[in-house]
Amino acid sequence: MFESLTEKFERAFKVLKGQGQITEINVAETLKEVRRALLDADVNFKTAKDFTNTVKEKALGRDVLKSVSPGQLMVKICHEELVELMGGNESEINIKGNPGIILMSGLQGSGKTTFSGKLASYLKSKKSKQVLLVACDVYRPAAIDQLHVLGEQLNIEVYSNKEEKDPVKIAQAAIQHAKSKGFNVVIVDTAGRLAIDEQMMDEIYRVKAAIQPTETLFVVDSMTGQDAVNTAKAFNDRINFDGVVLTKLDGDTRGGAALSIKAIVDKPIKFVGTGEKMDALDVFYPQRMADRILGMGDVVSLVERAQEQFNEEEARKLQKRIQKDQFDFNDFLGQLQQIKKMGNVKDLMGMIPGMGKAMKDVDVNDDSFKHIEAIILSMTPQERSNPGLINGQRKNRIANGSGTSIQEVNKLMKQFEDTKKMMKMMSNPKNMMGLMKQMKGGMR
Questions:
Q1: DSSP 321-384
Q2: Are residues 60 and 9 both part of a single domain?
Q3: Which of 16-20, 136-140, 148-152, 265-269 has the lowest mean pLDDT?
Q4: Share of the chain above pLDDT 70, in %
Q5: How far apart are CA 369 and CA 345, in angstroms?
Q6: 299 falls within a domain
Q7: Which of 82, 146, 297, 378 could form a disulfide with 353 if both were Cys (CB 3.0 to 4.6 A apart)?
Q8: Which one is predicted more confidently, 347 or 245?
Q9: Is residue 146 within a helix (H) or strand (E), and if so which, with residue range?
Q10: 185-190 and 131-136: which strand pairing?
Q11: What is the mean pLDDT of the chain?
């Protein structure tokens, strides 16, 4: 995400490379590039202008320490202002109440119904809430069916009534049902339209007035850029929502909506959707997003995703197997499957500082591990448990069975051996100390 914006920021900071000090001339040149980068990212003109004016004011008023180059200082100031522009701190969703009521709003096609399912899954798995989904789109039967399908997948109850045509009555009945059945949270999915119209605004206004939600969220497709911001403003003027949800952020290389919305409507971005899977939902952290925009990666989110898939008991067993030199292809396959659960591989690589740029033109998708899995699954149980058995004849059979070549099987065998050696070394503290000393010596 935000690839083109990251590139343009990097280009802007090159102006200050090698400069001994910050001057009005080189700051003006850098900020001209920064403003152009923001406008190309479809950021609102006033927002871009205010941003660069603030950065200029701070840059010229700050002394450059001898240990810090002007370029580094400019990156630091831009980072601080980007964080501020996107809201400063993450904003919690309000689910207090008996039950907590979340009202969803937005245009048709923004991903409202899918997000309702994702949010229900998030609240159930991460917050241990009993969630009820409510289908209040009385115009599109497919929306009701879609919510029921999602509810079935997630094992979450969905309340609907195809006979009733008044969304206010459906929402009120659903809340009564939630109270009687002991649900903690109710998520009300409302109808969207292809464009903003008075009838839709009036309907969502009436639903909100009738059910008094603890949280009203506006869902918008981030890839629509400035249109997303204009739509958010129109909705906020009428229903005064509490927060924004940006969907399809993984496909947004520009980032205009993420950078403009808070400044225009003065409401925080609370969640971002980063894929089609039901767990592809992230809390919006302005600090982490600024890190990614400026090419610094997002190690905290990477570690959090890893921890979600981490099983302490399994990890202990694996460590013992590594120490006893028993690491085999079953373990290797298990590690690959854990990585896949963490999300899109290219997105994960982009969270490592400096890797985003390196991965720019590399085509990595969710199918990247399929041929590796096919090779491992074409091995017999004995071969997987004892890779030493795999000779030339067996490699031939494995290649044919997996639809790959001998070269690919050999490449995987080498990757496996390299991984095994590295894991053995890392599991032994003495080896790790020796490795650190070697690295230290090599850096002198």
A1: HHHTT---HHHHHHHHHHHHHT--HHHHHHTSTTHHHHTTT----TTTTHHHHHHHHTS-HHHH
A2: yes
A3: 16-20
A4: 77
A5: 10
A6: no
A7: 297
A8: 245
A9: helix 141-154
A10: parallel
A11: 78
Question: How is residue 9 written in tokens?
Answer: 């920021």
Return the pLDDT at 1. Answer: 55
**What string of DSSP letters covers 212-256?**
--SEEEEEEEGGGTHHHHHHHHHHHHHH--SEEEEE-GGG-SS-H
Q: Which two tokens stand for residue 442?
A: 């090599």
Q: Which residues contact 256 (CB under 8 A, 6 or more apart)?
A: 41, 42, 43, 44, 225, 226, 228, 229
pLDDT the model gives residue 288: 81
The count of domains in the chain is 3
pLDDT band at 440 (very low <50, low <70, confident <90, very high): very low
Give dist(CA 393, CA 382) in Å, integer. 15
Question: Interhelix angle for 256-265 vs 70-85, to 10°?
Answer: 60
User: Cα–Cα distances in Å, from 406 out to 76, 179, 369, 390?
Assistant: 50, 62, 17, 12
Q: Which of 230, 260, 294 is the last residue of a domain?
A: 294
Distance CA 283, CA 57 (A): 32
Closest of 176, 186, 174, 173 to residue 97, by C-alpha: 186
- 354 and 259, same domain (yes or no): no
311 and 427 co-located in one domain: yes
Euclidean distance between CA atoms 174 and 279, whole angstroms: 25
**DSSP class of 296:** -
- Using DSSP's 3-state secondary structure scheme, residue 132 falls into strand
Does residue 195 sit in the same domain as residue 232? yes
Q: What is the pLDDT of residues 204-241, one digit of tens each?
A: 899 999 999 999 999 888 777 677 778 888 888 888 89
Gap between the Cα atoms of 399 and 393, Å rounded: 10
89-110, pLDDT tens digit by residue? 888 888 888 899 999 988 887 8
Q: Are 413 and 363 found together in one domain?
A: yes
Distance separating alpha carbons of residues 25 and 427, to the nearest angstrom: 54
And the tokens for 356?
Answer: 């985003």
103 and 217 in contact (C-beta within 8 Å)? yes
Q: Which domain holds residue 232?
A: 100-294
Describe the crossing of helices 3-13 and 286-293 by its angle, rounded to 10 degrees: 70
- Going from the C-alpha of 318 to that of each of 207, 282, 403, 427, the distances in angstroms are 53, 29, 30, 10
